[in-house]
Design goal:
about 60 residues, mainly beta, 4 strands, elongated
Length: about 60
């Protein structure tokens, strides 16, 4: 889910993800994207499903 507040035509943008919730099976982050003048240009929220990595097979 993203809300774009203003456009950026040139220069660098920076994204910073801040955890909102870190549980056993899900994690939610708020991502703030700012321009070179430190003005927020986009706000996003990301929810991830957390899974265990598959174990390598013995061989």
């Amino acid at each position: 889910n993203c809300t774009h507040h203003r456009g950026v035509r040139n220069g660098l943008v920076t994204g910073v993800a801040t955890p909102v919730h870190r549980g056993r099976s899900t994690a939610t982050y708020e991502i703030a994207i700012t321009d070179e003048q430190d003005k927020r240009v986009c706000t996003a929220r990301l929810t991830c499903l957390l899974r265990d990595a598959p174990r390598p097979e013995a061989g």
